[in-house]
């Protein structure tokens, strides 16, 4: 039997905060951990969360934001797939009076008032950390070190920053040479395909792979094994993110160094949402503090790694 809905005089008053979450996609282990963290934190607060996955397409993400505007959400949490091209849709959100918080990737807009705050990492520093370790490990050998870089999604904030920081530091030592800088999309498949092509072209002439994220590093690892070489020994692999899968590969010696990028941004995001709703001023940037992992420290970290 079905009963007629009882309308309570209180339901209208207790307005539940509604968040629109415009996510990049499902390209990586990092991304899945990020989505889970945001969803769990919203649930914890009792907020309603509308989630849209853009499959790494800017057009889809613009559509998702328009959907949220139509649904009259209270706030939009936005992880932009690329940096530019958002002015129009963010203007629409502003006109509708809906604030936008950027999560994990920044945008470049003409007008900074189109978003309230950025919560995420310093990608340039991550790139520098990767390169500093390399210089320290292989710098004193006096031999040429030939590097293949596997870039993340073209035009995305992390790909640009990680490239910039890395190049800045290796530029200090002429023994280090970036022989190929290949355009991937943060997926394991792209890392594997690009690396196997690079191996066909260069053979044993590659000493180092610098991957902009774990998934591409794991793909490169597979390509190197298929080519009959040993990842982590014949070719040094450096990666960024530090997901559990990568830390395992690091602990077993198949990767050599991993720079951390923290995906567990949900709690900080929800705090920012609440602060903003209470009328508090949000800082323009909230930067996550992060570490780095070697083969030894990965073993210890693995015991407590959640994602
Ligand atoms: O490093 C990568 C993901 O935007 C920081 O996106 C994020 C990056 C992360 O696909 O794995």
Task: List strands and helices in order, with pairings.
Blueprint: E1 18-23, H1 29-45, E2 48-53, H2 58-70, E3 75-78, H3 87-95, E4 100-103, E5 117-120, H4 123-138, E6 145-151, H5 157-170, E7 176-183, H6 188-202, E8 208-211, H7 214-226, E9 236-241, H8 244-251, E10 257-260, H9 266-277, E11 285-287, E12 292-293, H10 295-302
Beta-D-fucofuranose (GYE) is lined by residues 27-28, 30-31, 104-105, 158, 186, 213, 240-241, 261.
Organism: Paenibacillus validus
Domain Periplasmic binding protein: 19-281
Subcellular location: Cell envelope
Question: Can you walk me through this structure?
Answer:
With 307 residues, the chain is an alpha/beta fold. The chain is 41% helix and 19% strand. It is elongated. The protein starts with 17 loop residues before the first strand and ends in a 5-residue tail after the last helix. The model has no long low-confidence stretch (mean pLDDT 94). It binds beta-D-fucofuranose. Beta-D-fucofuranose binds next to helix 1 and strand 9. It is found in: Cell envelope.
Which strand order spans the largest sheet, edge to edge or round the barrel? 2-1-3-4-5-11
Shape: elongated
Rg, alpha carbons: 21 Å
Q: Strand fraction band?
A: 15-25%
Order of SSEs, N→C?
EHEHEHEEHEHEHEHEHEHEEH
Specify the number of helices.
10
Uncertain stretches: none
- Main sheet? 6 strands, parallel
Primary descriptors:
single chain; about 300 residues; alpha/beta; elongated; binds beta-D-fucofuranose; Substrate-binding domain-containing protein
């Amino acid at each position: 039997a079905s009963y007629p809905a009882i309308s309570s005089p209180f339901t209208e008053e207790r307005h539940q905060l509604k968040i629109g979450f415009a996510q990049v996609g499902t390209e990586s282990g990092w991304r899945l951990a990020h989505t889970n963290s945001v969803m769990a934190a919203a649930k914890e607060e009792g907020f309603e969360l509308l989630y849209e996955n853009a499959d790494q397409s800017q057009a889809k993400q613009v559509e998702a934001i328009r959907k949220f505007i139509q649904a009259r959400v209270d706030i939009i949490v936005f992880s932009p797939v690329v940096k530019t091209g958002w002015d129009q849709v963010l203007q629409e959100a502003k006109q509708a009076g809906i604030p936008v918080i950027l999560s994990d990737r920044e945008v470049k807009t003409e007008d900074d008032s189109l978003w309230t705050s950025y919560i995420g990492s310093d990608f340039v520093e991550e790139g520098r950390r990767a390169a500093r370790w390399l210089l320290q490990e292989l710098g004193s050998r006096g031999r040429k070190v030939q590097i293949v870089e596997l870039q993340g999604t073209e035009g995305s904030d992390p790909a640009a920053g990680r490239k910039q920081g890395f190049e800045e530091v290796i530029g200090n030592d002429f023994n280090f040479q970036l022989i190929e800088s290949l355009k991937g999309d943060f997926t394991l498949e792209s890392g594997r395909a690009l690396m196997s092509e690079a191996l066909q072209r260069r053979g044993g002439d590659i000493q180092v792979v610098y991957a902009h994220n774990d998934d591409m590093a794991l793909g490169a690892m597979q390509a190197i094994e298929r080519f009959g070489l040993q990842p982590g020994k014949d070719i040094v692999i450096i990666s960024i993110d530090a997901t559990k899968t990568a830390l395992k590969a690091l602990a077993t010696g198949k990767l050599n160094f991993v720079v951390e990028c923290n995906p567990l941004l949900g709690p900080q995001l929800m705090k920012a949402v609440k602060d903003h709703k209470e009328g508090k001023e949000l800082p323009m940037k909230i930067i996550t503090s992060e570490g780095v992992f070697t083969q030894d420290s990965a073993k210890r970290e693995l015991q407590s790694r959640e994602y």
